[in-house]
Amino acid sequence: MVARGPLYLRKTTNVVLDALVLAVERAGHGQPLSMALLEGIVSELKASANFDDFYHRTYREMMEIVESEKREQRRTNAFGRLVVHPLSPLFHDESLDRALVTNILSFLHLVLGDEVEVYSEKCREIIRVLKDDSGDNFSWDAFYDDPGAKIVLWHTLVHISASFKRYDLRKDWFIKLMQYRPTTISLASNAFVTREHDPSEEPLVFGEREFCIFFHALFDPLIELSPREDAAFRKEFGADPHHLIGGFLVNLSMCVV
Known about the structure:
single chain; two-stranded antiparallel sheet; mainly alpha; 13 helices; 2 strands
C-alpha cells in the first residue's frame, strides 16, 4: 500500500508549481525571462495572500492523513496493542479517554528506551508464527493469550514498576504526562509535523482516579495469575510477582478506585 502522505505532498507541490508556471507566463508574455524578473515573481508568490486559504486547507487535510496513518500504525503495532489491551474496557466505558493512547505509547518509549524495539520484534515474530499456523483464522485474542506475548507483557510491567522506585514523584510525573495534548505528531523516529494549537482545548482528563484505574487494570492480572501462569512467571523471573515487585504493588494497593 502506497502511503497517502507522500502522494498528497506531491499533489500540493504540483499545485504550487503550476501556479508558478502560470505567473511566469503572465509576466513574460511569451518572452524570455531574466533571473531578476523570475526572482521577483517567486517573491510575489511567497507573499501572496491568494495562497492563504490553500495553505490552511492543505494543512487540515495533511493533519487528517497523519492522524489516520497514526491510527493505522496503532492498529498494527502489536507491542502497543499488547500493553494497551488490558485498558480496553476502560476505553469502552469511557472511564479513560481513547486520546490517551498516544501518551501511553510515548510513556513506553520514555521508560523502556531501546527495549521497545526488542519487545516489538518479539511480538511481530509471535504474530508471524500465529498467522502461519492459523492462516485466515488469526485473531488478536490468540496473540494476547500466547505464552510468549504474556512474557513480553510481564517484562514490560516489571520494567514499569521499577521506574516507580520514587513512587510519589513518578506518579505526579505520570499524571502530568497523561494530561498533555501533544503539539507534534511523529511520522518516524526523526520526522514530525506540528499540530495546530487550539487555545480552547482542555488538557486530557487524568487525575488520581484515572491513575488508580489505569494501573490496577495493568497490574491486577499479575496478582491473579493462574497456577500455570504463576509457574511460567517464576520460571522467567525466578520469583513470583509479590516478591519481585512487591513495593510497587503495595503502593498500588493503597490507591483505591
